[in-house]
Amino acid sequence: MSRLFLFFLLIINYSHSQTSDLGRFTVNVKSGCIPLEIEIISENVDSSVSVVQYDFNFNTTNNLFNPSSGKSYTYSSKGKYVIAQAINQDGVEKIDFIEIEAFEPRELDISLFNCFDKSLEIILNDNYYDGYSLFINGNKVQTIEPGSNQIDYTNYLNQNNIIEGYVIGEFNGNNVNCSKYILNISPIISSQDDIIDSIRLGNEMKNFKLFYNLEKSTNYEILVDEKRYSLFLSPAITSSEDTVIEFSNQNYNARCLKVIKLFGCDDSEIIDELCLIYLDVEEISNGIKLEFNYTNNFDSLKILRNNMLLERINNRDNIFIDNNGILKNNEYCYTVYGYANNKRSISNTFCITSTENYNPIPVPNAFTPNDDGLNDEFKPLFSIVNEYKMLIFNKYGEKIFESDDINKGWNGIYKGKIVQESYVYKISFIKDGNEVNMTGKFILIK
């Protein structure tokens, strides 16, 4: 039967042990993380005691004792609590106390760095808990202290060549329900210098992607224009999905990307970097103008049109005029590739529809009919066209040659003579469903 005790609390001497102030009862733990389960595990009372009751939320302000129905209780909110034991011995009420503290489990602030020699550097930046322990394969390996802690994990690798464990915070040696920092680490196999494979700017330039050579259990720091974007430890088991990172570029101002591999224990690092290429395209009077902006010193640049190689550039030029093989009302999509130390920077792809024809098929502006086997006939370079026809006129407007075969050109002879002067051509054909008419001048050189 429950009883209510009311008394004056004169002195409470809270200790840090698990035993009550007067030694009449012992609890399983004195502090810990919520939900914190407290249980009375032993009692030290005289055989003459007729009543033993507990109040797990004793109010020290009004000294009101509210007996519990059992000898265990779970605290679900953080705070300090007093457990009071009330006994009736020979008709006299006696009280004993112990203070309990319940804490919220808080994430641990830990930096983890893998090292070359199958060792691990654990840097503890946390002081929330009053103790920290490292467990591997379910067993406590060592206590973790604030600052740098180094451990050789050679003998802890499992059959998959991985160590599995965690660092956990604790209060008064109790870590039940407290936060864990999970460890899944495999040894560093190599120290590859080429980290970046390529970077690619999105077509709308609002994002870009990094494709990189990811190594297992390795620390990476990524900077965009020298500002840290992320710092992370790669997984012990990696997949192809782990080798791509997408970045937001809402202000279109990102320029260069730097990836650093960090190794613990000796503070060594490997740095790799590459810059983005921004491509702008417009039609001007003499063709389609490409302007590509970048800050990298690329070894070479390559321009693609509709995914086919258009031009190679081996210098710092950043403007190119495309005025060959372009048909009116056709769409052309351009991409610029920059190459530097086995890495590729790929620009945004820019598509534009031409409003004019620009040399739809390549036509020379001179030829030399001297029977040397080189440039002896005037004709366009071979292209796949339909309904082809070419007419050639002299300076008097006389038609001097006609061909309906793109492979058949003029050998320079008219009325039995070869005359060095300027001539006019008119070429018509159908290409890619478009009817094209071209007119131009060329010179015969004897």
Kindly describe this structure.
The chain has no helices and 36 strands. The chain is mainly beta and 446 residues long. The strands form nine sheets. Strands 15, 16, 19, 24, 25, 27, 28 and 29 form an eight-stranded mixed sheet that branches. Strands 30-36-35-31-32 form a five-stranded mixed sheet, with no helix packed on it. Strand 6 (79-89) and strand 7 form a beta hairpin. The radius of gyration is 41 Å and the shape is rod-shaped.
What is the strand tally?
Answer: 36
Helix content: under 10%
- Give the termini distance in whole angstroms: 128 Å
CATH topology of the largest domain: Immunoglobulin-like
Computed Rg: 41 Å
Strand proportion, as a percent range, falls in over 45%
Q: Tell me the count of domains.
A: 5
Oligomer kind: single chain
What is the tally of helical segments?
Answer: 0
| Biggest beta sheet attributes | 8 strands, mixed
Provide mean pLDDT, rounded. Answer: 91
- Are there runs of 5+ residues with pLDDT below 50, and where? 1-17
Which architecture name of the largest domain does CATH use?
A: Sandwich
Concise account of the structure shown:
This protein has 446 residues and is mostly beta strands. Helices cover 0% and strands 50% of the residues.
Topology, element by element:
Elements: E1 25-27, E2 31-33, E3 36-43, E4 49-55, E5 72-75, E6 79-89, E7 92-103, E8 110-114, E9 119-124, E10 131-136, E11 139-143, E12 147-152, E13 163-170, E14 180-185, E15 196-201, E16 207-212, E17 219-224, E18 227-233, E19 244-248, E20 256-262, E21 269-275, E22 278-284, E23 287-293, E24 300-305, E25 308-313, E26 319-322, E27 331-340, E28 343-346, E29 350-353, E30 366-367, E31 386-393, E32 399-403, E33 413-414, E34 417-418, E35 422-431, E36 434-444
Parallel strand pairs: 2-7, 15-28, 30-36
Antiparallel strand pairs: 1-3, 3-5, 4-6, 6-7, 8-9, 9-12, 10-11, 10-13, 13-14, 15-16, 16-19, 17-18, 17-20, 20-21, 22-23, 23-26, 24-25, 24-27, 27-28, 27-29, 31-32, 31-35, 33-34, 35-36
